[in-house]
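[job 0412] stage=fold_complex status=start
inputs:
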Amino acid sequence: MNLHQLMRDLREENGSKIVLLVADGLGGLPLTLSGKTELETARTPNLDAMAREGVSGLTIPVLPGITPGSGPGHLGLFGYDPLEFQIGRGILEALGINFQVGPRDVATRGNFCTVDGKGLITDRRAGRPATQRCVEMCKKLSTIKVPGVEVFVEPVREHRFVVVFRGDNLGDAVNDTDPQAIGVAPLHAVGEDAEAQNTARAVNHFTTEAARVLKQDAPTNMVTLRGFARHPKIASMQEIYGLRAACIAVYPMYKGLARLVGMDVLEGPTTLAEQVDTLKKIWNDYDFFFLHYKYTDSTGEDGDFAAKVEKIELLDLEVPRIRAQNPDVLIVTGDHSTPSKMRSHSWHPVPTLLWARMVRPDGVVDFGESSCRRGGLGQFKAKYLMSLAMAHAGRLGKYGA
Amino acid sequence: MNLHQLMRDLREENGSKIVLLVADGLGGLPLTLSGKTELETARTPNLDAMAREGVSGLTIPVLPGITPGSGPGHLGLFGYDPLEFQIGRGILEALGINFQVGPRDVATRGNFCTVDGKGLITDRRAGRPATQRCVEMCKKLSTIKVPGVEVFVEPVREHRFVVVFRGDNLGDAVNDTDPQAIGVAPLHAVGEDAEAQNTARAVNHFTTEAARVLKQDAPTNMVTLRGFARHPKIASMQEIYGLRAACIAVYPMYKGLARLVGMDVLEGPTTLAEQVDTLKKIWNDYDFFFLHYKYTDSTGEDGDFAAKVEKIELLDLEVPRIRAQNPDVLIVTGDHSTPSKMRSHSWHPVPTLLWARMVRPDGVVDFGESSCRRGGLGQFKAKYLMSLAMAHAGRLGKYGA
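[job 0412] stage=fold_complex status=done
writing structure:
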């Protein structure tokens, strides 16, 4: 009996509402031994009130010491063991731009890069071109024909785009053509098995043609591809939890992750305030609402402690409008830590707060890493967050007689 | 995706140094309800300073309530799930005396014992003979010939020795001949399957001959054998973590365990001070250093609370010399608890301290069982200690995009 089967067997419908507010990269580190983290430094009266009324803890996204990317980090929060469900970057990128990946497709993340006269890479991101240029260059790439394989080239933003190869018997065990270095040429694609070799042939044909088509377009005069991936078989949140689930996110990656687990993605909002507006609008149509807030991660990656503090305070300001909807369960957490001290994702457990009427109070009076360490939820794997949410929503029956 | 595969996939080389200082049987119990444990009683200013700067927790060696032997205890600390990797005692003993066990070998632990005129055991350890006598008796046993099987008899110390049976199709599913009782005869060896029956025949031939050869040598006039084991298939720490790993231990068992996971064993030191001398000497040649300190366990097994306190204080005195090497990660823990109150190994979680630059501080100001319970690492399975060490050493990349 695994976790998902347990959810399928025990779930009950009761009309309750669950809100999962993910502050990306929420967890942090103090800058000095006796200092406070970003979250502890921020003035967060609304989150603190939730901590007093709710129950706190620390989530371990994957396993102790493992730093997750956004994919594994979010899958865990949605209740999918990130070691069991592995999602390639190409799929995430494709889902993020609303490209409907099918069973005959291999998706890959593309980067425009700059090469010199000898074909050696001088800039892996082609000087981060404007998105409009990315759109134009993708139109050029869309003219490329590959024998026996249909090719879709779709812009993402700046130097990033998606390529989907559609055909029969295309595998995804293909190496990245991005050498992750400058001064060398893009790599030749090689397939690990017969099906992947079919894909590799198409890839090499495509990149050779790309070099020709973009020859006059420096700095965007070449491409690299990485993260070749087929669509994974994954049950939806509706199938597992019986929840009509909605995603209210701004950035493509998180919309893609939500689509992957079967959420409806609400398009439109570009700020957290607008996300909450959308939440209010669709409140009656769904049972589960995933709100994603990016800026706690991006400020952490910038190494900007003060900016991360500010972004947390801005998040806090929106909490009352979410609570005004009167959700049955409101969870605030992150998909991983992004300490500004480290300027990167990290393995440190993530502060997590669950508000519901039937929590066992734990005496925690504010929301922060140290308080969460003493919280009633303890330290636990993020994949158990959804069963806790379902329980506190009154949506799980008894296991066994 | 299991833990070892994750390590292989994510590991990165960065020249950092990890020191794992294992104080055997470190965890303890207070003698009275309101008392302190051995570790809490000991004056340990250097460990306390590490606790203030680092992060603490409690390791569960195997599973809650499970008391480990030295083998499972150490395998867990090295990141090998002790329920998955099971090592027979014979193998441990053989590795501990630097006997190179091969694929056609079955190794077993031997004890000299004393039998009366009827062949019934009167002393299971033959009065703990001097090691020199053990050496002489093993020479006698080495004269025994077993048809079709090569036999190696090697002294360990006192009443203990190793026998290795080398031949084709020798299994290790053979019962111990040690009845673990006096007043009875050594047991007949029986094999559970055809290959083990081959071994059992050789064993019974050997013990019958041993009784004859040692007839005049009371109190060392008979042998018992236990822990029949073949060499397990186990990936090295180099293969899993990419670490050049060195063991600096005094006692054979721990050297054997280290060899099993592919560590180089540095011979020579007989005291902790000499172990630290060796550490300094080999510092540039390795990435990972396992230092083993036996006396916290042996004093615990003696039931000598005061002596265990003293041994902990002596350990503390060596900590500054280890820190002077400027390791990137320094861990102090035990392979299990050995409360002097119990005079034995126990299941109680083990105080664990991890010092590194990127820890999340936890407000813990001293090293002890109660403090560790409030520590930032929480209670966690010992098998995750290595992934935490790798993460804090900056040696693990991100999992997933």
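[job 0412] summary: The CA atoms of residues 79 and 384 of chain B lie 6 Å apart.
[job 0412] exit 0
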